[in-house]
Amino acid sequence: MDRKPTARAAADPRRRALRRRRLLGAAFALPALLLLGALVAYPVVFSVGRSLFDASGDRFVGADNYVEMVRDPATLKALRNSALWVVVAPALLTGLGLLLAVLTERVRWATAFKLVLFLPMAVSFLAAGIVFRLAYEQDPDRGVLNAVVVGVHDAFAEPSPYPTARARDGRGLAGGPADGYTSGELRPGSVAVLPFVGVAPGAVPAGAEAARAPAPAPDGLAGTVYLDFTPGTGGRPGVVDDREKGLPGMTVEAVRDGRAVATARTAADGSFHFDGLGDGTYRLRVPAANFAAGYGGVDWLGPALVTPAIIGAYLWVWTGFSMVLIGAGLAALPRDVLEAARVDGANERQIFRRITVPLLAPVLTVVFVTLVINVMKVFDLVYVIAPGPVQEEANVLATRMWLVSFGGGNDQGLGSALSVLLLLLVVPAMVFNIRRFRKGGS
């Protein structure tokens, strides 16, 4: 009879202790829960409710904003760009991270190498966007990428010597820079003077000498191509003056019956000669290749390449993150399995494909899904790097949501609908990642 009260009395202190621990845990968790509710739960609920009202927020429109979102071509383009980001960026980052993690194991200064690759993670997306906006500039004098591209191009294809030059009007040359210039009819023994303007004095080659008209050749044609501009005063149009420079490196052709029969390049003083020409009449032609605009590089921020260019900047920032996480997983692999495979005669390629990658599959999956979640939220790089005229071509859901809500659209109903769509796209990846972490912890 006395055992039941004794057992109940012994259980009561345990219940009270358990209750106190729960209350204490709730007290410690309460500030975090309040903060989470204020910064996460309330904005989500508010955005869902706001998406059911019009731009002013006064009139209930139901699902009209979601219908408009599906019909809006700009939103559909942002959705396609987001899909491209999700497919390309995480896959490239995971592959690069895996490759670099494997390679750094064979580098003597692996720690320093990893540190250098991880450093971009310390740079904000805003700063990285500004850096890459300058690097992608079309002007080779400002954009480092186009400076390299133009330098490599010009090493294999000689640039046009005088892209801004044009013939002096009314001085015997007909045509234009697009088709080239042609002189009137000339006979062997003649000397032609071909005046050009439009070349800045600083653009004349450093080796250019004072222009001079060459002596006539009895069986050929001679002439000079020069810059018809005298610094200061005293110059005479169409006449070779003492202080005027020749235009070296200019290609000149002797044309007969519409066909070029001889070609010459002007010397440092602008002179050229055609010897051994037969009797008859000829014309001198200065081909359009002399005036073709120089290679300007790649239009990185044009409509066709702006999204791949921004993805390239994103890869620069996040490759170190992927490499470090995969490297940590690689360091935890059982070495005895790898050594046993080498003893059995497997080469490094077979070990990588059949052992390393399968054992790293859980780590690769977590890295890939984490990057998918991050890519869905990308905003800074797209907004900073893409120029205004092509902003719509580069938009993703996050930038489209901001532009519709605050960047001039002033339609927070539609912007809230976009935010709900973005949330619905991110949640499955988050749930998958949380489950992976729980499985790994268990």
From TrEMBL:
Superkingdom assignment: Bacteria
Segments crossing the lipid bilayer: 83-103, 115-136, 313-334, 355-376, 413-434
Protein species of origin: Streptomyces hydrogenans
Subcellular location: Cell membrane
Name under which the protein is recorded: ABC transporter permease
Domain called ABC transmembrane type-1: residue spans: 79-433
Alphabetic keyword roster: Cell membrane, Membrane, Transmembrane, Transmembrane helix, Transport
InterPro entries linked to this entry: MetI-like, MetI-like_sf, TAT_signal, UgpAE/MalFG_permease
Family, per entry: Belongs to the binding-protein-dependent transport system permease family.
UniProt signal peptide: none
Membrane topology summary: Multi-pass membrane protein
